[in-house]
Amino acid sequence: MSRLNEQHRFLKLRRHGLFPIFLIFLVVVAVNACLQPGFFTFDVFQSNLASFTPLVLASMAQAVVILVGGIDLSIGMAITLSTVIMAATMNDSASGILLGIGLALAATFAVGALNGLTVGYLKLPSIISTFAVSSVCYGAALLIMPQPGGYIPSVFYEAYQTNIASVLPVPLLIILAGLAIWGFFRRRKIYRYIYAVGGNEQAAFANGIDTKRVKLYAFLISGVFIVLTALVVVAQTATGDANMGRSYTLNSIAAVVIGGISLQGGKGNLIGAVLGALILGFISNIIFFANLSSFYQDLIKGLIIIFALTLSILPTLRKKALA
Amino acid sequence: MGGDPEMSQLQTGEARGAGRTASAGQALGKLRSLGNPKVLIAYALAVLIFVAGQLISPGFGEFSNIMNVLNISALLGFIALAQMLVVLSGGEGIDLSVGAMASLGAVMSSQIIGGLDGNLIQAVAIVLAVGFLIGCVSGVGISYFKVPPLVMTLAMASVIQGGALVYTNGQPKGMASPLLKELGVGRTAGIPNLVWLWILIAVVAGIFLARTKWGKLLYGLGTNRLTTELSGVRTRVVRTIVYGASGAISAIGGMLLLSYTGTAFLDIGGTYMLPTIIAVVIGGISLAGGLGSYNGTVAGAILLTSLSSILVTLNMSEGGRQIVYGVILLLLLIAYGRQKTT
Amino acid sequence: MQLLEAKSLRKSYGGVAALRDGNLICRQGKVCGLLGANGSGKSTFSKMISGVVKPDGGEIRFEGERLDVANPQEAQKRGIVMVHQHLSLVPELTIWENMTLASEPQGRMGFLNDSRAKEIAREYLSKFAPELSVHAKVKDLSLAQKQFVEIAKALSREPKLLILDEPTAPLEQSEVEKLFAVMRELKARQTSIIFISHRLWEIKSICDYVVVFRNGETVGAIDFETEAKDENLIVSMISGKEHRQIKGGPGTRNAGRAETMLEVRELALRKSRKPINFELRKGEVVGVGGLQGQGQEELLLVLSGLERPASGRISLGGKPLKLKHPKHAVKEGMVLVPGDRHKEGLFLQHDVLLNLIYPQLATGKSGLFLNMRRMKAEAAETIRQVNLVPNDPGKIVQYLSGGNQQKVVVGKWLPLAPKVLLLSDPAKGVDVGAKKELYDTVRKLAEQGTSVLLYASDHEELMEICDRVFIMFEDQIVDELLPSDYSEQRFVSASLRSAQAAGH
Questions:
Q1: Exposed, middle or buried: residue A46 (CB in 10 Å: 0-12, 13-18, 19+)?
Q2: Chains touching chain C at 3 or more Cβ pairs under 8 angstroms?
């Protein structure tokens, strides 16, 4: 009897949307484990995590926007702007740190509001308008810090390297904090509305949902994750550099797609974005440790995206045959 | 049940309200025959930029500089032709792989040509074929597997970029041949060769779209796929070919980039991708498909390039330039790119 | 007790009146049936009560007070809920998420109370589909199940007045019974229901009284509690009491002599549907009628090659025809004028010229470079033939009147001299004058030898022009009417009664 239940539960798991991505994840981890010496030691685990975390958080930011049916090409530069503001204003005093974080928060929300207004209220196509905003962010970052520099209190760097109670690395803590924030929103209307607007904007509208406001809120929530990403980045690099954020934009989109989140909107889970980002991280590890030229990275990344896409399309294809 | 207000409004031609709407449509139609107003405004803005540039930084508006700007515009304009075809084909058509394809085209031609004129024809043939085949892969995914164009071309862009990396092993080899370089930077009768080529392409594109069977079919496809299908057109095949053509054109666009720079570097085409979309939008082409002409895209390309150019001339820091570029882009989009509420 | 009273409601779109004089009294705890043919004004009427549309004139009183709502949500707050055909469901969300969308139960500090939401969903859904888990995603549901979810969702708002717009369309008999059981429960709890349906036997089964619409106004009401449930009376109210005489035309063509053009054998439109068999003779105009949505449009779409049938064979002019793509049908001369001209028949943003010459481009009757002079001449000829107003080939089709747009849709096929013309409700929303011209064109084509298969939702059109009419019900042909049978009464009762005969 119980075995039947177990089988039943396994079959249910198999149909869960994240299952194929989880499989890819396991495969990638396994390969990485073979190649990277000491993979299962705590030190390596911690350093891997530390390097993956920025992309994980950036992918969560991207995921929120994609869920509501848009796309955000300004994420990389928004992160950059945030880090640059922090590097430019912080000093070792507590007030200095708070000022830096406060200004970064303000700037990020301003960017999010700009995106939300242009996409939601002015109805510009998000792919182009966020690109324009990206230019503005980059420009602002360059104005604030034309050359890499600035000052980040060492407190950040040290905190990022520590492990709480010797077992919980701070990067992991931050990822969990990010998920907790999303969990907070999960219990609120905006979460449901984001999925509704992304899934079927007309139906959402027919139900009386203010679709414009939902899109604005989505960009603002995304901003929270952007600030988190910025904090982690400055903790790692301890400088402000206006050119650091480029790769985050496309990589976060790749992570989101690999993570099973549909670019149409309304479908997928933030956990998928986390997995997708981790998969990308492990792949870059694999390429490094396998002594492959890093040139294969892009190719493999693209192939994995297509593979993940195929997986998500397959169930719909099968359904069509039955109909 | 007669629930269509617009339609019923026009049934009685005598009704004044109907008359007004119909004649407004006619007026717009007449204006259209002069050239799409959006396009004219884009050209006007470009002229404005040159005038302003001349005032701010004398020499900017001079013939030689205008030709410089046009030379670079031609590069963008050519790749934007690929984007335009895809957007025209409708179905939320967009090609995010044009930049990557151009890069691939550039490094491939660079290697095949290896500085020798004799290899030119070979290079063109190979680059065209590779571009077309890869584009068709995107097309198949989009037409037959119903992958949204945004997703499919984005993924292909990654694959293409990776492919280019692997192909060159990180170091693009070879270089443009003298003849090719002459095309890229040389001038004939004072006008850059690339601009001559661009004019030729624009004329061909115009004829293709307006005067050939295929052009009309493309417009129909972009406007209403179902009607096209019911007219007996195999729309899936046609769409696949359109994406293939986009790939081919972008790839050759890469060769043109090579002609201008002399040597290829990886991701040489990357910065062109998003501007092609903007050029297409500014050129009055609806992102929904079915409407527009290459004329508009040409205007868009020139406007964007002259905008970037004047920003470089101004004594602004890079940061200021980026901000101004972004803000103007947003303003242009608000004027040109608003989506109709579905 | 009067719950709702609607007096003299009017609504016009542009110059055309959709509703001229709508009246209804809804009593508390009673089920009021709303009947009427397509275009009678009943849908506009119900949309006004539910807040989707604002009336141009007249008054609605609800619970004694004026009802003046700007949108459906406000109407809901007053207690009026309308059930659509699953238009308000988000496919990727679960049943319980959809049912409580925009009305989520909340806990402390604005957090959602998901367990309460699931409870509510379970409670109301179980009345219809206890076997369905509220965690199922709406996209995985069948049409009937989606309909149940919509109805359950409406019920969960605890309406005082529930409006059901053809709720039984996707339902089977046993499911209809479930719905009726719930409706009886609601009645017991003093909820009023407005029930819109075409199926007479359903109306007779569940309604306490009926109100009939025709031509934009309320023409009568029958109280089932005090009067007899007279079907004939109802039918005559829906159709109008005049018996229309045929004006000649059909029947005067001796179609019996002509050769067979189209042969349809064992055509099953969907799996588990009984197959269709019929023939179309050269020069014949055959109509397809019956209630809306009984497969008439599907039949035409299948014949055109756009949709695939579950099984069947077709031969055109003696040759078997592949049914895989419109290309095959068009090449052999069978063309479709689709039902929704905006979505399927026109390139709205382009001019008349492009629209008219398109089929020739598609079927390869022109070279690579267009001979614009020849095309313009042909287009001008077509414009003359269909009498397009204004006769300007440069006019953007979007700005033509509905009737003229339809002329373009039909006209574009004329140069190709089609063998079979499939028409899917071509005169819907077209004014009287254009309609006449349209059918004159069709008649001319038939006289020249084109076979015509015509689906029209308006029986008068069928009677005026068709040599014979098939009545369809649930994807099958259930009756064939000859000109000697033609009368409005006969049509309506054939459509309705055959529905009844299908086991009720």
A1: middle
A2: A, B
Residue ranges of the domains in chain B?
78-336
Give the whole-angstrom CA distance, residue A114 versus residue A126.
Answer: 11
Determine, for residues A189 and C93 on separate chains, whether the beta-carbon distance falls below 8 Å.
no
A76 and A249 Cβ atoms separated by less than 8 Å: yes
Closest by Cβ to C361, choosing from B9, B213, B290: B213
Domain boundaries, chain C: 2-239, 255-347+418-501
Greatest CA separation for chain C:
81
User: Which architecture characterizes domain C2-239 according to CATH?
Assistant: 3-Layer(aba) Sandwich (3.40)
Contacts of A206 in chain C (CB under 8 A): 72, 84, 87-88
- What pTM was estimated for this model as a whole? 0.80
Alpha-carbon span A183 to A185, nearest angstrom: 5
Which architecture, in CATH terms, is C255-347+418-501? Answer: 3-Layer(aba) Sandwich (3.40)
The yes-or-no verdict on residue C6 having pLDDT over 70 is yes
Which one of B11, B12, B342 makes the best mutation probe of the C interface by having the most chain C beta carbons within 10 Å? B11
State the residue for tokens 């997986």.
A311
CB C414 within 8 A of CB C365: no
Q: Where are the alpha helices (DSSP H) in A74-199?
A: 75-89, 94-116, 126-144, 154-161, 170-186, 189-199
Whether B232 sits inside 8 A of C329 (CB atoms) is yes
Position A15, amino acid: R
Mean pLDDT (10-residue bins), chain B, 342 residues: 35 37 50 64 89 86 88 94 94 91 94 88 94 96 86 87 84 86 87 92 91 89 88 91 96 94 86 88 80 88 90 83 89 74 36
Cβ-Cβ pairs closer than 8 A, A with B, add up to: 147
**Nearest to A58, CA basis, from A265, A273, A204, A208:** A273
HSE of C493, CA atoms in CB hemisphere, 13 A: 15
pLDDT < 70 positions in chain A: 1-16, 294-295, 312-323
Q: What are the structural domains, with CATH classification, of chain A?
A: 47-312 (1.10.3470)
